[in-house]
Amino acid sequence: MSPADFGGRSAYEVLEVSFDADTAQLKAAWRRAARRTHPDYGGDVAEFRLVSYAWELVGDPGSRRDYDRGFSTAGARRSGTGRQTGGPSSGPAASYASAPSASARASRTGRSASGPGTITYVPPLDDEMVLDLARSSQQIHGAPRKRGILPAGHRLVREARAIRTMQTHVLASLPATRLVNGLHLTFGRLNSGAIDHVLLCGDRLAIIGSLQVPDGVYRWDGAELWKGDRRISPPSLAPAMVALQRAFPDCTIGGFVLVLGPDDNPHAPVIQLDRTRSMLDSEAGFLTDPPAHPLQFGRDVKMFLGTGSRSATVDRRLLARLLGAMY
Fold first, then answer.
1. What CATH number is given to the structural domain containing 273?
2. pTM score, two decimals?
3. Within the chain, what is the greatest distance between any pair of CA atoms?
4. What are the b/e assignments for 41-67, b being 16+ CB within 10 Å?
5. Angle formed by the axes of helices 61-69 and 45-58, nearest 10°
6. Do 47 and 123 contact (CB within 8 A), yes or no?
7. Residue 63 pLDDT > 50, yes or no?
8. What is the mean pLDDT of residues 165-189?
9. Which of 68, 98, 128 is the C-terminal boundary of a domain?
10. Can you give the CATH number for the domain in which 29 is found?
11. Strand partners, 256
């Protein structure tokens, strides 16, 4: 069994508990889920197995930490030939919502079949001094998690929804893309602040911010969103974009804001473009495209990443540096 069996859910969602739940809350949620799904109480055997596996991934503090950071300790126990010594259940999950796909079974030549195209790994996968096979192969790294001591339930839910949106509307179409969640980067005096999500595809990096708004019709004036007389400023991506451009001077950096409605309708909310203000008057000038609902957001990000000259390449050195910046 692997996290891919969760059907796009995280281990926390399988257990029906928030990402920032403490140990007692997590254990109570597991007991409720186990009782609800146990065959002796009329539950479904397959769902009970998923609940048990989810608890295996996050029930122990060490395993939970590894799961949240998005890497597998099973990969760390790999022998010198690159083969894992344990099966799929021998360690924590390899990613937030998906296990290594066909690319995890790649040949050691540096090329791997994945979907309709072919992924090229640079340097080849047999160079494990750069990054191990498991993390090179998985598409999603890390999960939403707390920053500091303040409550963050709303933000964690929003970030989880953003991850699912990118998984559906971006990663499925661009198999060489890697999503890294939760970064903090310093470069000299530059400080990126907390970065929710970064997508790496070849030599292009897309920084993703998100916000959740009530349903309705919004107007984008070039710098801010408006609903009637209510003004909503998009998250500022400028510090992150400047810091990443300095840290990765050979990469093309893009900035995108995903606007989520109250439900999972990919066409909502409606955003009308009425650029009455110059984007240069605000930090919105750093954005590659205007803020957009999930469907349009996916199109914009795929256009940015997919039109690069190396869109079928996983640069493992760049990926390793991004993983090293996870907080």
1. 3.40.1350
2. 0.69
3. 64
4. eebeeeebebbbbbbbbbbeeebbebb
5. 90
6. no
7. yes
8. 91
9. 98
10. 1.10.287.110
11. 208
User: Per residue in 260-279, pLDDT tens?
Assistant: 999 999 999 999 998 676 65
Q: What are phi and psi of 261, to 5 degrees?
A: -85, -175
Q: How confident is the model at residue 62 (pLDDT cuts 50, 70, 90)?
A: confident
Residue 29, phi then psi, degrees to nearest 5:
-65, -40
In a domain, 106, yes or no: no
Answer yes or no: do 73 and 148 share one domain.
Answer: no
pLDDT > 90 fraction of the chain, expressed in percent and rounded:
48
Q: How far, in Å, CA of 11 to CA of 2, rounded? A: 11
> Which residues neighbour 84 within 8 Å (Cβ) at sequence distance 6 or greater?
74, 75, 77, 78, 90, 134
CA distances from residue 19 to 23, 194, 254 in whole angstroms, order as listed = 11, 17, 28
The whole domain housing 176 covers 140-324
Cα dist. 59→22, 36, 96, 274, 299 in Å?
11, 18, 15, 49, 37
Residues making up the chain, counted from first to last: 327
Euclidean distance between CA atoms 106 and 175, whole angstroms: 13
pLDDT band at 84 (very low <50, low <70, confident <90, very high): very low
Residue 17 predicted with pLDDT over 90: no
Which of 234 and 43 is assigned the larger pLDDT?
234
Q: Tell me, yes or no, whether 92 and 148 share the same domain.
A: no
DSSP 145: -
Are residue 86 and residue 145 in the same domain, yes or no?
Answer: no
